[in-house]
Amino acid sequence: MTGNPGEPRVSTLSLVRQQAAVAAGDQHTVDAAVRVLRAGGNAIDAAVAAGFAAAVTEPCLTSLGGGGFLLHRDATGASRLFDFFVDAPGRGLADSALAAPHFEPITLRFAGTTQTFHCGYGSVAVPGVLTGYLHAHARLGRIPLQDVVEPAIELARDGFLLSQAQASILTLLMSIITSTPEAANVFGTYANASGNGDLATNHLYAGFLDELADAEPGDPAPGWQKRLVEAMERNEGLITAEDLAAYRAIEREPLGFELSDASVLTNPSPSFGGMIVGEALTGAFNGRPTGEQPDAVPMLQALARATANGKRHTDNAPTSVRGTTQISIIDGDGGIVSMTTSNGSCSGVMIPGTGIQLNNMMGEADLHPHGFHRTEPGTRIASMMAPSILAWPDGSSAAVGSGGSERIRSAIVQVACSLLAGDDAAVSVDAPRFHLADDGVVQAEPGISSERLQPVAGTWPVNEWPARDLYFGGANVVHRDALGRLQAAGDPRRGGASAVIDL
What we know:
By secondary structure, the chain is an alpha+beta fold. The protein has one domain (12-432, 468-497). The protein is built from 16 helices and 24 strands. A seven-stranded antiparallel β-sheet has the order 8-3-2-13-12-1-24. α3 packs antiparallel against α5 (129-140) and α3 packs parallel to α6 (145-158).
């Protein structure tokens, strides 16, 4: 108890519970969530606000024109997974139109190699993020939509300083995200901002969100669907009016795994990343209490088995594992959210007049091993993304998720292992990571102890990296202990940020 003589005595526990925590991929994204939490919003409100903001502040990683997943658990333990990932397009089109998609190949130069990406109108899957945000807010949000979108409107209208991490990603993908005239017009300010510190703006997006906030319920930002379909028809894209009319955000029962003294909630089928994470954690802690860190070799072996099993379940499905961003939030009521969204590698295609860039999920050859556009229109694309929540019997909980392509599984499992072993959020996120790649080589960050590294090197070939790198993911974490004390950690590998605030 606290208080001075003669003053009311206030429980320390009640004081602690009037806090909230946020971790995300950019400081501006975190600030948007914080603002909404302080305005009385809950974790859903804050996650949606952060998502709208991230579409401005992390433009190469997420967009209202992409897809994602939001996992929510309330103070009673009730949970649900909002699936608003992308669908394969083409409802109502003839087979001949689907057989020869129209791509714009763009070759990017990385350190020591090049890679060709397929962008343009033929690369775009049916987007789900806007629908998902509106659905989640309508179902579980607490404050008006106008208040939720206001931080993003201000960022897009008034401008902001682009972070060094986002500027680096922007520079890498600039030839993609400016590959059409409208995209070049929108992201021209970003190009200047990444070079000389000017403010990045997106006035079309600010106007779209203004319209969204003022729209009648059930008629969000009227007209964008019509403009998108018309643009697709003019440019031989595959999204149809039937696709947009049929698209739904889907509420699913989260996939659950029981460990020795903790539980894991994660992303269920048709995506497979959650299954990999859950099975890997179960295998890593097999016969071991969760209060002890698993040895590296059994953990990597469990990851390898879970990955092979997960891929068998998706042999006949297209899978998306491209660039992503993660938002994790705990509110003052005990609600917790883990949300992961993606825009693929970007398409350069905009929804006309909105400032929203669309995804390129249908244009990545490694995401469609059986050939482009062989998937039945309307099929929900599977994903490696695995927003997850850990829960302990004493009431402790944590939200974790990550970007990072196929490294998503490795990042989440290793951060979760650290949290389950009792490490705090910052230690869990900062700890150097392994990744057992599909070619059988273990990629290892610098700083791993010889005691932990040597058994791995005796089992697989190991490539030790000279510096920590965004290759190893972007795991953003929030944690609440049994007394209600909060922690938050953004992953420095991708410019992550965090905040624990008083409400």
